[in-house]
């Protein structure tokens, strides 16, 4: 029965991964987090932007399980564009559980998927590659319970 559950979960993950990246989603990359997320680990995303006339939505993609010890997740996102001379830094507080401890997001069993809007109605000024570096700002040296992290860029209609 356990293997059947794992097979179903794998099929759901593969379906989401292959269908979520489409024409309206010019960038989608998700990394697995193995053995916890160390404070020194940086997840890096390079987004190539060609269309500077469209509006975009930039999202954080997260998957957590019941081992995540907190209600929220604090992230530091450092980014720069192709013509930037300084690095921009944002702090993001993501609520993963409500005040009663119920996990937000969609999931099966003890795994929960969350897509959180990081930047809405975003218009890139210049074409080229935008570099994003994501680290956690939690008080734990090694955060357990996060199994995947990523970013996706969607064109708005």
How would you portray this structure in words?
It is a single chain. Helices cover 12% and strands 50% of the residues. The radius of gyration is 16 Å and the shape is globular. The protein has one domain: Sandwich (Jelly Rolls), CATH 2.60.120. The longest helix is centred in the N-terminal third of the chain and has 19 residues. The strands form three sheets. Strands 1-11-4-8-7 form a five-stranded antiparallel β-sheet, with helices on one face. It is mostly beta strands.
Topology:
Layout: H1 2-20, E1 27-32, E2 37-38, E3 43-49, E4 56-65, E5 72-80, E6 88-95, E7 106-108, E8 111-122, E9 128-136, E10 142-143, E11 146-155
Antiparallel strand pairs: 1-11, 2-10, 3-9, 4-8, 4-11, 5-6, 5-9, 7-8
The helix count comes to 1
User: What's the overall average pLDDT, rounded?
Assistant: 88
User: In which range does the helix fraction lie?
Assistant: 10-25%
Total strand segments = 11
CATH class: Mainly Beta
| CATH fold node name | Jelly Rolls
The parts where pLDDT drops under 50 for at least 5 residues are none
What gross morphology would you assign?
globular
Q: Which sequence of SSEs, written as H and E, runs from N to C?
A: HEEEEEEEEEEE
Structural class: mainly beta
Can you list the strand order of the major beta sheet? 1-11-4-8-7
Ends distance: 43 Å
Task: Report the sheet with the most strands, covering strand number, pairing sense and barrel closure.
Answer: 5 strands, antiparallel
């Amino acid at each position: 029965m356990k293997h059947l559950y794992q097979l179903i979960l794998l099929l759901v993950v593969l379906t989401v991964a292959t269908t979520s990246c489409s024409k309206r989603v010019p960038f989608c990359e998700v990394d697995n987090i193995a053995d916890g997320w160390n404070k020194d680990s940086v997840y890096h995303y390079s987004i190539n932007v060609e269309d500077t006339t469209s509006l975009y939505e930039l999202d954080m993609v997260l998957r957590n399980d019941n081992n995540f010890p907190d209600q929220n997740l604090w992230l530091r996102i450092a980014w720069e564009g192709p013509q930037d001379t300084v690095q921009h830094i944002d702090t993001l507080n993501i609520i993963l559980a409500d005040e009663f401890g119920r996990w937000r997001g969609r999931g099966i069993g003890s795994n929960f998927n969350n897509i959180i809007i990081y930047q809405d109605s975003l218009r890139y000024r210049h074409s080229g590659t935008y570099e994003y570096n994501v680290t956690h700002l939690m008080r734990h040296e090694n955060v357990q319970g996060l199994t995947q992290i990523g970013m996706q860029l969607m064109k708005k209609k």
